[in-house]
Design brief:
16 strands; four-stranded mixed sheet; 3 domains; alpha/beta; Spore Coat Polysaccharide Biosynthesis Protein SpsA, Chain A; 8 helices
Length: about 325
């Protein structure tokens, strides 16, 4: 019913466990080899149906496309070697496809991602819906852009955000592992920015950094994940900052092109710019639950005013701030209740 496809590059530490988790839920299983130099293929070959070869490319998402015409089944399930499918999730996917597979073309499953050995329940990492990985042939292809995900032409359903059903994603074993990926990925991201004509600018790099610091730590409560949440927050901020900073490797900065030096005058200017960017992100982040503003002719002798007063009585039972703007032909009165 389903063809499984495991994309891997030098994952001998993970590949056997990954296969053991996915194998019971697929009738056909491919290993997608991207110029592997360790024992990954040697360990996997007895456990899979086929090994497909693809050159190692920075935009690795697109490598998955070669598996589509090779699959015998209508449905394909793509995983990476550091991802483990729980039994409950595998059973659910097969049940959905069997019972109502004609009503959708993709299934999006949450990822339960780990950082330095800890499941990150905040930081915006849980529930980690990224892109659909269970896909119906003829309705998708993977993007050539790094982390561009899948281009879907069809309907998508989401598996529930159940902690027992999330795909286990051992994304970063330790900080050394993070740094190794960080260097590769930021080089590719920077090249993509360069191809779009983006230039290095210290304020632009700062804006990206502050956004990710704010998003992880304040918007998504990274502090609730303890010290790893704090460290991951800084890792996230540095990722986009470095992607922009590496534009100087491509000769894309005002200074290198003969313009003004693209640096802050001093640390005071840097700190002031940081505070300014942070204030902007905080300003446009709404506090929930949102308040209610009702604009209506509350005191006029009309049917509309009677209905408005009925609405006010109903809204009074809500636990939210209500602002009533009373409209009539003479004046507008604002009252807070």
């Amino acid at each position: 019913m389903i063809t499984g496809v495991i994309l891997t590059h030098n994952e001998q530490a993970n590949i056997v466990e990954c296969i053991e988790h996915l194998r019971p839920h697929v009738s056909e299983l491919f290993l997608l080899d991207t110029d592997i130099t360790d024992k990954t293929v040697e360990l996997a070959r007895p456990l899979v149906d086929r090994v497909l070869m693809h050159p190692h490319v920075p935009n690795f998402d697109s490598a998955r496309n070669i598996a589509i015409p090779e699959a015998r089944n209508e449905w394909l399930w793509f995983v990476d070697a550091d991802e483990y499918v729980p039994k409950i999730t595998g059973d659910l996917v097969n049940q959905w496809i069997r019972e109502r597979g004609e009503t959708f073309e993709a299934i999006n499953i949450p990822f339960k991602s780990y950082f330095c050995g800890q499941w990150m329940q905040h930081c915006g990492w849980w529930p980690g819906y990224t892109c659909a990985r269970v896909l119906k042939r003829g309705h998708f292809k993977f993007s050539a852009t790094l982390h561009g995900g899948v281009e879907l032409n069809g309907r998508e359903v989401r598996a529930p955000a159940n902690a027992h059903a999330g795909i286990e994603h051992r994304s970063f074993r330790d900080l050394q592992h993070w740094i190794e990926k960080f260097n590769r990925y930021t080089s590719t991201e920077s090249l993509q920015l360069a191809n779009r004509g983006i230039m290095y600018d210290w304020r632009g790099a700062l804006r990206f950094m502050v956004h990710d610091l704010w998003e992880h730590y304040e918007k998504f409560n990274a502090h609730l994940d303890g010290e790893r949440g704090w460290i991951l927050t800084w890792c996230a901020g540095l990722y986009r900052w470095m992607s922009v900073a590496k534009l100087i490797d491509h000769g894309l900065s005002e200074e290198q092109l003969g313009g003004a030096s693209s640096v802050p005058a001093d640390l005071d200017e840097f700190v002031a710019a940081l505070k300014e960017e942070l204030a902007c992100f905080r300003k446009y982040d709404p506090t929930f639950p949102l308040g209610i503003v009702l604009r209506a002719p509350v005191w006029d002798a009309t049917q509309a005013s009677q209905e408005a007063r009925q609405w006010i009585r109903q809204l009074a039972y809500e636990s939210r701030t209500i602002v009533v703007e009373s409209l009539n032909r003479y004046r507008l009165n604002r009252k807070r209740h």
